[in-house]
Structures are given as structure tokens and as C-alpha cells.
Amino acid sequence: MKTVVVYVHGLWFSGREAWLLRVRMARALHAEERPFSYRSVSDAISTSSAALGKFIAAIDCDRLHLVGHSLGGVVILDMFRDAPQFAAGRILLLGSPIRGSESACSLARLPFGKAMLGRGMAEQVIQAPARHWDGRRDLAIIAGSLPVGIGHLVHRFGGPNDGTVLVAETHLDGASDHLVVRVSHTGLLWSREVVRQGASFLRDGRFVR
Questions:
Q1: Which of 50, 54, 53, 203 is nearest to 140 (CA)?
Q2: Percent of residues, the chain, with pLDDT higher than 70
Q3: Would you identify the CATH topology of the domain 3-204?
Q4: How much is the pLDDT for 96?
Q5: pLDDT at 37
Q6: For residue 83, pLDDT beyond 80
Q7: What pTM was estimated for this model as a whole?
Q8: For residues 182 and 184, what is the distance between their CA atoms, to the nearest angstrom?
């Protein structure tokens, strides 16, 4: 059985920054890994999600898992609005601002802030729509709670956060599970615990507790 894990990066990244996460996750699942890259600043989320759908449709496998970091998780969710038919598998979101982002809103109010964040963040995070997962696939979220990150340069957080996104902003109604790990937003990409827990969910449908 051929298993493929598709990784979708976040804002300002390309997927190369997550090579360690990708390799570790693929090894833990005895799978192949494929990074999907998109223009996170200049393109609309709908453009990126449509491209992701075409990217996945071209993959020949028996089992397909999706891992999205930060804005990448928003792209994944948007892709499933059109009910695409792919190989069976699960979805793992890492620190994704599903319910919006207070720090992004604060940055957007600064000179050049909106330009830095780009079109996708403006459409789907700063003006975040109400989201509910329909359960067509098992989907879980890992959020970070180590408050170290650039978000503190522009925003004063009022609750547990990973330095960029509040833990409360990562919740999604209808998700299978939600786990908080003591890592920062970027640290989600380097943490062995994130790999251990993420691989457990993608393989068995549950986190290790």
C-alpha cells in the first residue's frame, strides 16, 4: 500500500523550511512526502486551494494524508469546500489560524502591514469566516503554547499562544481532536513531539495520551 503525505506551508514560507518535519513524518508513517508550494502573499486562498486540488489529483497512491502549517491549514480547508474525491486519509493542522488571528489584525493596522500579509490573509484570516468541519475525513489540530514569536512585536496576547497564533484561534468545530504542545509557532516544524503525535493521529486516528 502506497501512502503519501502532502505538506502545505504557511505564510512567507515555501515548504523547504519544513524538510525535517516532512522527512520525520514520512519515515514514521513509512510513506512518501510531497511538499506543495504556493504564493502565500500574492494569491487568493481560492487560487491556492484550487492549485492544491490539482496537485493532489495527480498523485497516485492508496492513502493520502494532508499536513498544513499555519496558513497552509486554511488552504487545505478551503480546498475541501468543493468536496474533491481523493484517496482515503486524514488531515493534520499545525497552528492554523482557523478562527482568525488577532496578531495579524494588529499587523494589518501598521504601515505596509496589509501588503506584508497579502491577499489570502486579508480574505480568510483577518476576515475569517465561520468554519465547521463536516467530518468527511478525520481531522485534528496541534497548537503551540510556547509564547515566542514575531507576533509579540505587534500584538499583546490575552491568552495561551505560540507567539503568533492564540490557541483559541486554532479550534475547529467538528474536528476529531485538538492537542496543545509546548512549542512555538515555528517550533511546530522542528518538534519531535509534534511528529510523534502527528504520526500517531495520521496512522491510528488518535493522539498519544
A1: 203
A2: 100
A3: Rossmann fold (3.40.50)
A4: 98
A5: 97
A6: no
A7: 0.96
A8: 7
Q: Which residues lie across from 33 on neighbouring strands?
A: 5
State the residue for C-alpha cell 496576547. Answer: 157
CA-to-CA separations, 88 to 63, 85, 106, in angstroms, rounded: 5, 9, 39
30 burial type by CB count under 10 A (0-12 exposed, 13-18 middle, 19+ buried):
exposed
User: Which residue is associated with the grid cell 514575531?
Assistant: 150
- pLDDT surpasses 80 at 99: yes
Domain boundaries, the chain: 3-204
Distance between CA atoms of residues 121 and 48, nearest Å: 12
Cell of 104: 495579524
Average pLDDT over every residue of 58-79: 97
* pLDDT (tens digit per residue) in 101-119: 989 888 888 888 889 999 9
Instruction: Answer yes or no: are the C-beta atoms of 46 and 76 closer than 8 Å.
Output: no
Q: Which residue is associated with the grid cell 486554511?
A: 74
Instruction: Look up residue 68 and give its three cell numbers.
Output: 498544513
Q: Does the pLDDT at position 184 exceed 80?
A: yes
Q: To which residue does cell 504556493 refer? A: 38
Angle between helix 19-29 and 192-204 (nearest 10): 40
What span, in angstroms and rounded, lies between the C-alpha atoms of 50 and 175?
22
Q: Give the phi and the psi of residue 106 in degrees, each rounded to 5.
A: -65, -40
